[in-house]
Structure formats: C-alpha cells, structure tokens
Amino acid sequence: QVQVTESGGGLVQAGRSLRLNCTASGFIFNFIYFAMLWFRQATRKVREGVSCIDWGGHETLVSASVWGRFTVSRNNHKNEHYLLMNQLKPEDTAMYYCAISPSGYCEDSWSSADHPKHWGRGMQVTVSS
Predict the structure, then answer these.
(1) CB contact set of 71 (below 8 Å; sequence gap of 6+)
(2) Cα-trace Rg, the chain
(3) How far is the C-alpha of 29 from the C-alpha of 33, rounded, in Å?
C-alpha cells in the first residue's frame, strides 16, 4: 500500500521561508517512475495545483500564484520530494498536500485535483502578517 507523508508545515511570518517535505513509501523501487505534485487548499476555496516535478527532476512547473517564490525538487535516492517556499504571503495560508502523479511526466492536467494517483493527508501552513 502506498503511503505519502508530508512534514515541515507550521506557522511562519510573512516574508520568511519554509520547506515542505514529502516521503513516499510502499513502492520504493518505483518512486523514480512517477512525477510528484504539491497541492494546496485554503479555507472555502478549491484545491489547486502548486507544483509538479517529473520523474527525473528535469522538468519543474509551478502555478502562477507562486512563480518566482516557490521551488520544487526531489531526491530519488531517498524517495523524497520538497517544496521550498520563499517570500511567503498571508494568502499562501492553506492545507498543503503532497501527491503522486499516475505519469512520470508533468502532464497538461497535472494541476487538476482529479489528476493524482495517491494523496498525503496534508498539513497546515499558516503565514501571519
């Protein structure tokens, strides 16, 4: 059974940085085959795609709302995936979810909440003004 676990969330002041971590287990030998995703969902808003990184880290995509501030990366040797969030704003406050794509690449539909194959439980990130 696939398990996806997020860590690194919490409370941070606006303008500061935070790194989110995601670990996938249960299919150790296949982690390298899948693109990895971050989503977020603010209160009373729809879940939105934040980032995608392909299987080898060759292609990374981020949403327009975080472009230039967030960076995504992965370490296939550790089955880990990261989201470095710089210059945080109060509007970045949300539940953040790590997810696994059914594809090894960042497909056109990567940012749709219907796209991921597996989800983590999510963790809260709160940015105070």
Answers:
(1) 60, 62, 83, 84, 86
(2) 14
(3) 9
Residue 39 CA, distance from chain mean position? 5
71 Ramachandran zone, left/alpha/beta (phi>0; psi -120 to 50): beta
| Apex 78 CA angle, 77 and 80, nearest 5 | 120
* pLDDT tens, position by position, 76-124: 999 999 999 999 999 999 999 999 999 999 999 999 999 999 999 999 9
Do 66 and 85 touch, CB atoms closer than 8 A?
Answer: yes
Strands 60-62 and 70-75: unpaired
Reported as a single tens digit per residue, the pLDDT across 42-89 is: 999 999 999 999 999 999 999 999 999 999 999 999 999 999 999 999
Closest CA to 119 of 46, 19, 45, 47: 47
| Both structure tokens of 80 | 């880990």
Q: Are 83 and 104 in contact (CB under 8 A)?
A: no
Give the max Cα distance, the chain: 43
